[in-house]
Amino acid sequence: xxVLKEQAPRIITADNExxxxxxxxxxxxIGGTERHLLDVxxxxxxxxxxxxxxxxxxxxxxxxxMKAAGVEVCTPPWQRPKSLRIVFAAFYLLGILIHRRPSIVxxxxxxxxxxxxxxxxxxxxxxxxxxxxxxxxxxxxxxxxAHLERWVQMRTDAxxxxxxxxxxxxxxxxxxxxxxxxxYNGVDVQLFDRLGSARALRQxxxxxxxxxxxxxxxxxxxxxxxxxxxxxxxTVVCDLPKHWLLLCIGRDDGIGDGLQxxxxxxxxxxxxxxxxxxIDVPQLLKAADIGISASHQEGFSNSVLECMAARLPIVVTxxxxxxxxxxxxxxxxxxxxxxxxxxxxxxxxxxxxxxRRTRMGLAGRQRVKMEFSLDExxxxxxxxxxxxxxxxxxxxxxxxGSN
Length: 403
Description:
There is one protein chain. The chain is an alpha/beta fold. It has helices spanning about 30-45, 65-70, 80-100, 110-125, 145-155, 165-170, 190-195, 200-205, 225-235, 255-265, 280-285, 300-310, 320-325, 340-350, 355-370, 375-390, 395-400, and strands spanning about 20-25, 50-55, 70-75, 105-110, 125-130, 160, 180, 210-215, 245-250, 270-275, 290-295, 315, 330-335. The protein has 2 domains: about 20-185 and about 375-400, Rossmann fold, CATH 3.40.50; about 190-370, Rossmann fold, CATH 3.40.50. It contains 17 helices and 13 strands. Helix 1 (about 30-45) packs across helix 16 and helix 12 packs across helix 15. The radius of gyration is 22 Å and the shape is globular. The two termini are about 25 Å apart.
């Protein structure tokens, strides 16, 4: 029996055998989906659930952390040549499906969904789940792969979104309602309570004690809106406090040099710190004053929830699940995407009003605690897997209590 607080269902199988869950993803690098899996999977891997992970590409920064948390990680032994890497990974996954015969296979992110979904159709009688964790804007650049992805998902037993915006797109793509479900990301609010004071954290991180600190957690890729943010700050720089910093946290996927040149051309480079990937994101958030998400597209952002859990008021763009998390004027401010002028005004509004920041930060933390807790997210996965393991499973919306 698995128990996770009172809301968790009891996992029952006909012969009391474990439910083997194989999770397939591209790579365990530092990213929103990967951190979500790291938060959730160790909490599921107990009792009658046995969870293990297969990555299509090895060497991710979170692989060892996942293993240390008690979750087996299977990695293809062949990483080169790059041109054949995905083919080797597919054969490796086929071998796992044939020899391990999991009860449920759950795919995260498009590459794993396409490659893994095709492999599972060929070699497995397992129940197949795909999680879409972003809006489908990426499909426009790859129409052939988009067609293949939709072909696979129509032959999948269950499709999950991490926001209503994503679920609605899946419905528009033709996924039947009885196969659709919603599981929000979840955050461990108590983690931020254990970090100590913002003042002590600033001292330990080498951040100025009296500066206004803004923070954005996003991979350095064009659609995350870093250029918009830099230009927004330029529009209000004369009205910001003399001492302010923007902390840019996230892996550089090729535009870092261009962003630094942009900051220099705008004359604000001395206020920007490019921190790259960090494992101390919670500490940095709690040491900051305002969180920002300037993205042009988003499924449901972990970083937005983490900012709120850290008691940060947050400025977000009106895309994807942002407006499902942030209540405009209550827990933060919502602005149109790709609009540096309005983004700058929203940042300045919070920068100029410490009491409003405090009020919004407290409201945001309470909202995360009540609506987007890690405990509830884990409980939803328990409901999902136990419901789909039954011989006559109900529609996904009935299993999860949402659609």
